[in-house]
Amino acid sequence: MDTTNYGFNNMGSSQPAKTDEKEQTQVPMVVQQLKEYKGDISQGVTMWGYKVNIVKLVGYVVNIENSSTKITYSIQDHTGSIDCYLWLEEDTTKELSNIMINTYVEVFGNVRKVQDNVLIMVFKIRPLTTFNQVTTHLLEVVHTRYKYEEMRKEDDNSSMGTHTSGPTNTFEANNMSAFGSGSLNKQQQALYDAIRSFPYPEGISTKQLLEKFPNVSPSEMSKITDFLCNEGHIYTSIDSDHFLSTDI
């Protein structure tokens, strides 16, 4: 069983994605998967028939370019390098001061294509705390490939009448913590749902969240929103006090 190509030959094609495809919030990937993606990135990334909202990459910084509005990080892993754009917000520069060239980082973001160049629009970037995270990420990439392939086989069997249960039952039961919000406690889930359901494009503010959840103290609210940001469930929008869900 080949585990070295991460399923590059089974990625999205130029055909439209199925209307009943399952969307996942966060999927671990390597650079080569994005660079060799054959589908239309403007329509979103589809892996093995499943649409991906946000990708996670792990690599080290090989170049940094600063401008007044954004920082461009060139991130490299063992399969290639990719540019990652981080648009600056208030106090962002101070938070990123510990990310330098040769720093190993994990990146969460959306995939975009600009002038034939594939890049990442970053929601969150942070240094690794241990090199074990590099190995763990690669294991997650391989595991994700085979899990999706298993789901597709179950889906195909179901469509032929040889399988009675839905293709996502086993996956969702065992992997919600990796791809969705199943790992959240009740309080975190309630706040996440409020952020995700907020109807305005600027995102919901901390003040509005505190009004919606009067039993949550400002310090606890800050801890929860920081946790949701760090886990890739939400990101800040117009400033550091407004939040949007990555589950778009």
Automatic annotation (TrEMBL):
Stated name of the protein: Putative single-stranded dna-binding replication protein a rpa medium 30 kd subunit
Organism expressing this protein natively: Xenopsylla cheopis (Oriental rat flea)
GO biological process, one term: nucleotide-excision repair
Signal sequence segment: none
Domain OB: 55-128
Keyword field contains Lipid biosynthesis: no
Matches recorded under CDD domains: RPA2_DBD_D
Main localization (coarse): nucleus
Family statement: Belongs to the replication factor A protein 2 family.
Region (Disordered): 1-24
Amino acid composition bias (Polar residues), ranges on this chain: 1-17
UniProt-annotated location(s): Nucleus
InterPro entries documented for this protein: NA-bd_OB-fold, NA-bd_OB_tRNA, RFA2-like, Rfa2/RPA32, RPA_C, WH-like_DNA-bd_sf, WH_DNA-bd_sf
A single GO molecular function term of this UniProt record: single-stranded DNA binding
